[in-house]
Amino acid sequence: MRHAVFAATAVLGLAAMAQTTHAAEAPYVDDRSSAESVIQSLYSAINRHEFARAWGYYDDAKPTKDFDTFVKGYDGTQEVEVKTGTAASEGTAGSVYYSVPVAIKATDKSGNAQVFAGCYTLRQVSAQAQEPPFRPIFIDKGELKPSTADFDSALPESCDGSAPPPKKDMALELAKKAFASNYGDRCDKKMPGGDPRGEPDAYTIRYKGEGAAENDPDRETRLFRFFCAMAAYNESSIYYVYDDVSGLRQLQFAAPTLDIRYENNNTEGKVESINITGFQTEDQAVNSEYDDTTKTITSFGKWRGAGDASSTGTYLFRHGTFSLVQYDVDASYDGKVNPQTILDYNTAP
Question: What is the fold of 2-153?
Fold first, then answer.
C-alpha cells in the first residue's frame, strides 16, 4: 500500500518548493533538522532535478519499484508550490513518528495547475540506539489527493483531524536563550514587586524595506525587552531584535558623552554649557519603553530620585534597526523638569 501511495503521487509530478517558480531558480536545501525541513528538502531536490538526493530522503521502502520509475514520474512537471503545516509527533519504542500536513500546487509543462493535499509520515530512529551508519529523519509514507480548494486554503490543519499543535516562537526562544546565557547571573531573578522574572515583553514590527515598492510584501522584525535590574530609582532592561536576514542580535544604545559646565563649578548652580565630546554605547536601556505607534524606544535616566536632572535618548526604528535620533538633557538640579535637546537627527532620511 505504501508503494502505491508514493507511486501515485510521483506520477502526478508533485515537486519543488514554495519559494521557487522554476527548476533552474530553485535554492539548494538539504536540511534534516525537522520533519517539515525534510519535506522541503525533498522538493528542493526534485525541483533541481537532483533525483538521487530526493530518492535518499525515503526509507528503505522506496516510493516506486525502482529509481528510473521515480525519475520518469516527474517528466511532465514544470513547477510546483508547496506548503507544510506544523508537524505532530508521537513516540514509540526506539522511534519518533511525525505527521506533516502538506498542500501542493503542481503546474505541468502545458500550464495546467492542480492542487493536492494530504499528509506525510516521517520517522526518526533513536539516535542513541543507532549504530553506524547513522540514519537521520526519513520519509516513511505519505498520501496526497486532489483538492477542490484553492492553494491558499488547501493545507490541512492537521493529519488526524485535531487542532494543530501550537508553533513555537523560535525568535522568542532564541532571545530567551541568549539572555539567559549573557545575563542570567547578572540580572535580578525577581521583579521589583518580588514576583519571579517572567517572560519578556514581545513586539512585532512590520515595515517596508529600504527601496521597496508599494506593492512589495512587508518585512517583519521581532523586538524583545527583558527586565534586568532595579537599582535605586532606575530600572534597566535588555533588548534583542530578530529578523530572517540578520537573525538575533542584541540592541546597543548609542549615547553622547558630555562636558557640562556649571556656574562657579557648582552642580547646584546654573548650567553654563553642555557640549558633546564623543559617543559611547550601552547594552542596557534605563526606565525604557517601546511605543509601537511611533516605533521608538525611549530611555530615561534619572540622575537623582527627584528626576529634576536627567537624560533621555530616543531611538527610532527605520530600515530594519533602531538608531539614536534625539537626546535631551536636564543638567540642572533646580527641582524643575526642564530638559533641552542637545542632539536631533529626526529629520534624517
Answer: Nuclear Transport Factor 2; Chain: A, (3.10.450)
